[in-house]
Amino acid sequence: MADFNLIKSLKRDQGGKIVLLVMDGLGGAPISPGGPTELEAAATPTLDRMAAEGALGALVPIRPGITPGSGPAHLALFGYDPLTYLVGRGVLEAVGVGLQVRKGDVAARGNFCSVDNAGRITDRRAGRIPTDQAAPLTERLATLELPGVTTEVRHVKEHRFAVVLRGDGLAGDIDDTDPQQTGVPPLPAQPRSEGSRRTADLFNQWIAKANANLKGEPKANSLTLRGFASDPALPAFPEIYGLRSACIGVYPMYRGLASLVGMDVKDFAGESPEEEFAAVARYWNDYDFFFVHLKKPDSRGEDGDFDGKASAVAAVDAALPRLLELKPDVVAVTGDHSTPALLKTHSWHPVPLLLWAPATVRADRSTAFGDRACETGGLGIFPSTDLLPLLMAHALRLEKFGA
Amino acid sequence: MADFNLIKSLKRDQGGKIVLLVMDGLGGAPISPGGPTELEAAATPTLDRMAAEGALGALVPIRPGITPGSGPAHLALFGYDPLTYLVGRGVLEAVGVGLQVRKGDVAARGNFCSVDNAGRITDRRAGRIPTDQAAPLTERLATLELPGVTTEVRHVKEHRFAVVLRGDGLAGDIDDTDPQQTGVPPLPAQPRSEGSRRTADLFNQWIAKANANLKGEPKANSLTLRGFASDPALPAFPEIYGLRSACIGVYPMYRGLASLVGMDVKDFAGESPEEEFAAVARYWNDYDFFFVHLKKPDSRGEDGDFDGKASAVAAVDAALPRLLELKPDVVAVTGDHSTPALLKTHSWHPVPLLLWAPATVRADRSTAFGDRACETGGLGIFPSTDLLPLLMAHALRLEKFGA
Predict the structure, then answer these.
(1) Which of A306, B189, B246, B309 could be bridged to B300 by S-S, CB 3.0 to 4.6 A?
(2) Percent residues over pLDDT 70 in chain B
(3) Mutation for A interface: B26, B59, B67, most A CBs within 10 A
(4) What is the ipTM of this complex?
């Protein structure tokens, strides 16, 4: 992983502007033997030119063979070893729906469930109650109040929601209330240490109020909470790297992760690649580093839609000239992980990386951006956590180590 | 980094002779888009033949993206992780001008400065007094004597010099005497622990004598000391690897580093590649391992002289047959770091490596020695600290691990 103390001791205040362009799930695989991958099949004239001018490599997000979730995969791209910097499930769920999780907050994942008259669970997922029925219930829960703390509640999908407690002296080491079986009542929130006793009490008060509020609902007449977790207190990205850092992205999860590491998360209109790059242009003078997140390639990969994923990549390529007009000094185009349409899910395959830095790169012999060209590119195959120092170097933002 | 305990437990007393040929700053970059690097542009028929017979790779001196100074870059080539084995600035300055820094010695960097009648600094660099004026002053300081210890003083450049104290019970944890501002007197040497109190006292005695000696000088009438550091007590290279080890090099810094790790530093006439290889020949029967250092490629790179750097590499190539006549078993040709003429300074780009070992190498498909061929060579991209075990293996100097 990036050695944060080393980077902090070498970082310069001055240097080039860096764009980290993440096409979610970019890495792919041939859908039929001997064929191209999604990226290789996509029409990408601008990316191919950038590959010819720059250098290619491939990133290993976690460890060889390990398929990452989106949270750890992004943390790795930002330089945080995901095996060291653990973000609790409650926090990931909360930031995933756009809740802020700040220093000292405690978040949890919530499930609506069904209970009988004796309070025993009859369905742990409230019959997978559809979103249009569950969202209004979540809005009711969002109105509940607790003494001395604030609560935020947001619906996720179907029977799932997220809740965040905010106040002084909170701690997240609390056991799940989901008993993982039916026929018994939900468990109380149990503190795992003296330090989380008050937090557990507050959650139990909130659960009691929520149960009173939900009483009489046909399906979702109770709830369980899981994955209690404190703000992970990640070292601040802008301080580690000395970069004024902005996130341009549409999906709450990625905006939330950027927020957790201390980037400024920008609001803008639209969600197309053109609109995202226009947002970069709008904030260009205010930042040294832009994390730009594009979700579509992953979604099409998860659908098993090979051509759709290739088209999503081509759409990013078509919009790229807008970004290059800004004359960035360093552009890295990569993914957080691979999502081959072949597998319809995230995978462990190394992720293509294109490094474009006209003033400082040692161009390799690549002539087009593709998965296989990346695997044998001049940058080699290396951990995602080493990417940021490399981008810093190419932006001439690191002093020499030693004399 | 190389696992010294593992290597020590597996090393054989017998085996082939190894030459580590370091062309300082060898790694480069195209100076114009689409063009060759310095190494690729150089006429290197012998190196190209060795590449065809051997295998190529690329070395990362410190960590990805980190630009190394010469000291840490060489330590890494010798197998010492430069983030673990720190050599103090005073020691580097001293060995850089050819002073020996032995076990128990304490070294410091010195600056001549100007002080007013009240002893307050008016110029921290004595008006950057030129070398021809400062060198005679340093010679005067070299005559000063202290009770119970010996001192060595040598001029570096302009207002800079190095000083080494040698004796029993010395320690280098002492604060700088440079107050980093004018209008105040130099600080006394302050010990940071009880163990360095006597050493600080000795330095203060030496400073008092030096001030008396310099009194009346128009510019350099006082001095400050910085970067106090003890001999770093590096594990001995010849013991780790079981290699009788010689350094053939011209520049004091590299000779000093070789001395710090316990190699025998040989004297010889001349400084051309031919003369350095002739020195290798002269000592051939006495050693198992030769570290041969060639400075010119780095100097031309720092000048931004692309053609000059290519010529310097070609000159080494032209002399190589003299070395190969000795029938070495293993020859590694590499650099300590990259110094692209494009950047006119050290850089982070991985360093080309050619491994030639006719009896044991698995030749890759390379046909010529060049930066890009190395990045995609059969040895891969790996840390410099892993090089020595690889050379040991190719010299059949390591036993099997386990049964």
Answers:
(1) B309
(2) 100
(3) B67
(4) 0.90
